[in-house]
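In this supplementary section we document a worked example of the pipeline. Step one takes a protein sequence of length 117 as its only input; no multiple sequence alignment statistics are reported here. Step two produces a three-dimensional model, which step three serialises into structure tokens for compact storage. The input and output of this example are shown verbatim.
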Amino acid sequence: MVVKKDPMQANHEEIEGATNLEIMNLVKSLASKEYIRVTFNWQYYYCYLTESGIEYLRTYLALPAEVLPATHRKRETVRPEGRDRESDRPERPAFRGSGDREYRSRGGGFGRGGGDA
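The serialised model returned by step three reads:
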């Protein structure tokens, strides 16, 4: 969740029916109990649930253990049959190789020592 540091703001941007001051105090309370981790940057509080916060919300809201926040779920990547990560990458030429050596062996330009005097 994101909370702007503005106690005079009438309504919170994301939560209906609550003033910004109420949300700021809620964040302060949850952070003191270590249910959330708060990062402050550019006049905004960025709040992240901790493991103990997830457990607290599960018991408070009577949720089963299978319920997780979307940020804690593992992504499932579906790949076509017979393809793995290495074969998905296109072939790229190496940064340095024989082509680079050929380029350098040609007559150099100004300042490279290959110019005619």
